Amino acid sequence: MLEILSLVAIGLALYTLNASKNSAQKIGDEVMRLKREIEALKAGGVTVPSETATDAVAETAEAAGEEAAATPVPEDFSSPWAAKADEAETGRAIFGGGPAVPAEAAASETAEEAVAVPVAAPVKPKESFESRIGARWAVWVGGIALALGGIFMVKYSIEAGLLSPAVRLSLAAVFGLVLMAVGEFVRRRTQPLIANAFQNAMIPGVLTAAGAITLFAVTYVAHEFYFYLGAPAAFALLAAVSFATIGLSLLHGQALAGLGLLASMLTPALVSTSEPSPWSLFGFLSVAWLATFAAARIRRWQIVPALANGGMLLWVVLYLTSAENVEVMPVLLAMLVLALGHGLVWPGSITADDMPAPSEAAPVGPLDRLFAPPAFAVSLTGALAMAFPALLLASSVPEITSADYGFAIVVMALALIGALRGWAIYPAILSAVAAVVGTVQLVGLPSGGLVDTFGTLAPPVLDGAASLPVPVLGPVPANLLLVLAVAYASVGLAAVRLRLSGSGLFGALWSLLAPAVPFAILAISFFNFGNLSFDLKHGLLAIAFGLAFLAAAEGFSRGRGEEEGLFVPQWTFAAGGFAFLVLALHALTDGLVTTLGIMVLGTAAVFATRVRNWPVLPWLMAGAAAVVAGRIAWEPTIVGAANLSKTPVFNQLLAGYGIPALLLALSAFELRRWPGVRIRNLLQALASLFLLLTAAILVRHGMNGGVLDSSVPTLGEQATYTLLVIGASAIMMSLDLKSPSPVFRYGSMVVGGLSVLSVLSAHFIGLNPYFTGELLGKWPFVDLLLVGYLLPGIAYGGLALYARDRRPMPYVTMLALTGVALVFAWFTLSVRRYWHGEGIADWKGFLQPETYTYSVVWLLLGVLLLAIGSKVDSKSIRLASAGLVLIAVVKVFLIDMSNLEGILRALSFIGLGAVLIGIGLFYQKILSGKSGTGEKAELNAPS
Fold this sequence. Notes:
36 helices, 1% strand, two-stranded antiparallel sheet, 943 residues, elongated, 6 strands, mainly alpha
C-alpha cells in the first residue's frame, strides 16, 4: 500500500510540475502578444482606451485561471508606453504614443477614471476552493509525498533484499540531489511569473525541501544503522546538508530556512559520541545560528531567526541542567556569538525607516514605537535566549566552576546590546531583570555565614565561639557583584548619552535602569555579605556612586530651561545619587547617627534649591522621611533595646524622633516660596506626624520604665498606631487640597473612618485599663491615660478642625465627636485613678466621693466644651457638651440620689442646679450676641 501511495504521489508531483510549466508558458505568450498589439497601436497614432487594455488583461486572466486574474498587472508592462497628453487641457495622463485627441479625451474622462481605479488598485477576490486544492494543497502534499517516497523506497529495498545497503543509500542520495536540482530548474523557469501569487506554496521550494529531507535521512541511516559513516563524518555531512538548505532558502523562502534550521538543531542530537565535546556542540550551533541570521538579514525575516534563538536557548538549558561536567566557557562563547549576531548581523543597525511603514488605520504612538521596535520578534527572543542562561548560571554557583563570571559577562553583553542599538528595548529591560534576580540567586547560598576580607564565605561566630560547622560550597562572589554594579552603571550612563538624542523614551528608561540596577546589586551585597555596623568597602563605593550620579544629573541638566518640561534623567540621577548616599550612611554608620544623617541629607537637598532649581530636590527630603519611618518601624528604639537609655524624655528617642520632626518643619519653612505647594504641604504634614509620634513614644517610654517593646498588646502601643493613622489622614488631606485627587480625597476619609472604628474597639473596649487591669504608670497625668486618650482626643479635634469646610459635614462631626469621647474618657478614668491609684480595674468597685467627683468633672467638662464650641463656632462640639450635661443630670438623679448620703447628696444637687442655670445664662448671652447668624434671628423672632 505504501509503495502505491508513493508512486501516486510522484505522479501527482510530475503532473503538477508539467501543468505549472504549461500555464507559465501560456501566460508569457499572451503577455507578449498584448505588448506587440499595443506597440502597433502606438505606432499608428491611435489612442487606446483604458477599457480595451482592461478587457484584454481580463481575457488573459480567464484563460490562465482565477489566480492570475486576481494578480495585478505588473507595472513594468504599462509604464514604458505611458505618457502625458494635453496636461494643460485635461490635467491628467492617458495611454497613447502619438498626438492625443483632446475632444475624445474630454468625452471619455468619466469612463476612464472609473476604469483606472480598479486597474491601479485591484481588489483581490476570495480564493476559490479549486485554487486551494489545485494550486496550494497539491504542492504541499506533493512535497511530503516525494520526501516519503524516497524514504519508503529505501525501506522497500531493505525489506525485499533487492539491493545492498550501500547501493540503496546511494540511490536515495541521488534521488534527493535530483529533487533539489529539479527544484532549482523549476524555480528558474516559473518563479518570475507565479512567485507573487503562491509565495507560501512555491513548487521549487517544496521540491528542494523534499530533497534536503531525503539527504538528511540517508546520512543519518548510513551512520546509525549501517555504520558506513563515523560520528565525525556523519556530523559533517548532516551539517553540510543543513547549511546548504539554509543557503538555498535565500532563493526559495523562509520555510526552507526553517527546515535547514531544524536540521541544524537536530544534528547534534542525532549524532553522538562516547566523549561528547561541548566545544564542538556549541561551536556547530553557533555557526548554524549565524548562518540562519545571515540569511534572515538579507531577506528581512523574523520568524526563522526567532526560532533559531529558541533552539539555542533549548540547547543551553539542556546542557546546563543535564550534563554531568558542565564547562562554562563554551556556553559563554555561544552567548557572546548571540550578542554579536544580534548587534551586528540581524537586526544589527536596522531602524524603523528600514522596515515597512505601518498602515494609517493603526496609528503608532511613542510607546508603541518603543515597545514594538523593528524586528520585534527577533529582539525579544534573543534577549530571552541570553537572560535565561544567565539566570541558570547564577543559580548554579558554586556547583559549576566559573558560573558566576559567566553570569556577569552574559548580563553585561545584554546591557551593551541595549545601550548600543535603538531597537534593543527588551535586551535592556531583561539585562536589568537578569542582573537583579541573578544577584538574589547568588546570595541565596545555603551558608548563613559572613564574608571575610577576601570576599569568601566564613562560618558565623556567636558569643566568641564558632557555631556548628556550616557546609561551605565555595567562595561567594561578593567582589564580582561590586564589579558588576560598576560596569552596569557605566554602560547605563553611556546609554543615556547615546539614546537621548534618538529616542527620548528609551533614554528615559535607561536613566532609570542606570542607577536602579547598581543600587539593587550593591544593597543586596551589603545586607547579605557586608558588616552591617561598619563596612568601608561598600560605604566608599556607595559614596562614589552617589557623587557620580549627582554629577551626571548636573551634566545632563546643563543648557536646559525650565520651560522645556519634565526632564526624566534629572529626576532619576538625582534620586539615584541620593539613594546611594543613604546606603553609604548605612554602611559607614549605625543606630542614631544613621537616622540623623539621612534626615540631614534630605535637609541639604532642600537647601540645595537655592543654587539649583530642580523640582526633584525637595522630594528627596520626603524620601529621606520615608526611609527614617521604615527604620523606626524596623527598630522603634532607634539604637536597640539593650542600648536604649531608661532616662525619661532625655534619651535617644528624643533625638531619633524629635530631630527629624524639627528638620522636616525647617525644610517646609525653607520651601515657603517654592512654586510647588504639594511638597511643602507634605513636609508640613510629615513634620506634624513626627511631632505627634515623638510625644507618644516618649510618653510610652516613660510610663513603661524605659522599655518600648512588649509581646502583650497594650493601650500605649495602640495609641501610637492611632496617632499614626490620624497623621496619615491629615497628610492625604493636605495633598488633596493642593493637588485634587480621588485617591487622596476618599483615602483620607477611609483612613479616618477606620481609625474611629479602631478607637471604638480598642481604646474603649478591648484595651481599656478599666477592663484589662493594665497599670497606668507611677507618674500622675504623664501616664497611660495621657497617651491612650488625651493625645488621640486632641489629635482628632485638630483633624476635625482641619477638615472643617474641606470634607463633608458628617465626616467632620464624626471626628469631633470621637475626639470629645476620648477626652471624656480621659477625664473619667483620671478621676478613677485619683481615687484608686495606677490600678483602676472594675473589680475595685466605686467609692462615694468618687461617684460625686464624676458628676462635678462631667459638668465642668460640659461647660468647657460649650465654651470651646462657641469659640470655634462648632455646633457638633456644643451638642456634645449638651450630651455630657444630660449624662451628668441623669447620673445625679438616678445614681447620686440613691448612692450618696448626707452632705454629698445635697452638694450634688446644688452643684447640678447651679451649673444648669449658668449654662442657660451662657447660651442666652453668647448666642444672642452673635451677629449675622441664623441663631440670633431665631432668638429675636416675635412669638
